[in-house]
Amino acid sequence: MSGTDEAKTADFTIALDLDGVVWRGRRVIPGSAEAVLALREAGLRVGFVSNNSTAPIGAVVDRLRRAGVEAEPSEVITSAQAAAAQMRSVLPEGAAVLVVGETGISEALADVGLSPVASHSGRRVAGVIAGLDTAFDYAALDAALQAIWSGARFIATNTDPTLPVEDGARPGSGAIVSAIATASGVDPHVAGKPHPPIARLVRTRLGETGVVVGDRPDTDGALAETLGWPFALVLSGVTADARQSGADIVADDLRGLVPALLGAAGRAVSADPGR
Ligand SMILES: [Mg+2]
């Protein structure tokens, strides 16, 4: 690749899912740090787009660093941020929002000027955001139900049924969101992958052209479709069979995808006379 092309490929984004791509549960997937480095050295922009809403952005950046990947906070996009942005678009500054979830959601709400409220506070709220919450219980379900019946907006971070861990999977956000939807009879607006709120954050922060890399056709693959970008499937997460995945590129893991991603970026640059 010539020096000119390298400068131009900085406009091409590789949007990486985290769970199942960079790590699986607590285990780092071998070769992922080297793969990120290789993509960046070729002049591509790498971003991290996760439906996991639990951790604050600083904790995700720290975890990436421990996995051997340097990242700016602005390069990390979560479903918590997408849900908070969506909630802010319908509520006034300072409005109280019930959090059925963890600190990632509270931080994202505060960042957009809304007031996160815990389920035991008893405060009246204008919105409810539900996501993965490992302390979820009957009282939280009841608080969400009462708020929604009182007219609060209901937004879910994501509806992933499960969360991949080292030795299998645990219940995901979708199981909690379904409990609230079943009790209240109200379906949420969903903000995370593959829905438009997180796609808007990807376009705004990472760019207009790129490839989505992930382990789930129903979220990562569908996000690629929302963005109009190709989808690259890795088999290092929850999907073991590439058939019917709709993926444009498939590899065992991120390391195995690097040559094909560089090829896709090169073709995008040479196909666009405006660059
Ligand atoms: Mg994943």
Description:
It is a single chain. The protein has 275 residues and is an alpha/beta fold. It folds into two domains: 127 residues, Rossmann fold (3-Layer(aba) Sandwich), CATH 3.40.50.1000; 111 residues, HAD superfamily/HAD-like (Rossmann fold), CATH 3.40.50.1000. Helices cover 40% and strands 21% of the residues. It has ten helices and 15 strands. The strands form four sheets. It has a six-stranded parallel beta sheet, sandwiched between helices. Strands 7-6-8-9-12 form a five-stranded parallel beta sheet, sandwiched between helices. Strand 4, helix 3 and strand 5 form a beta-alpha-beta unit. It is globular. The model has no long low-confidence stretch (mean pLDDT 93). The site of magnesium ion has 7 residues, from loops.
Which residues form runs of ≥5 with pLDDT under 50?
Answer: none
Order of helices and strands: HEEEHEHEHEHEEHEEEHEHEHEEH
CATH superfamily of the largest domain, please? Answer: HAD superfamily/HAD-like
Please tell me the total number of domains: 2
**C-alpha Rg (nearest Å):** 19 Å
Mean pLDDT: 93
The CATH architecture of the largest domain would be 3-Layer(aba) Sandwich
- Residues in helices, as a percent range: 25-40%
Helix and strand composition category? alpha/beta
| Overall 3D shape | globular
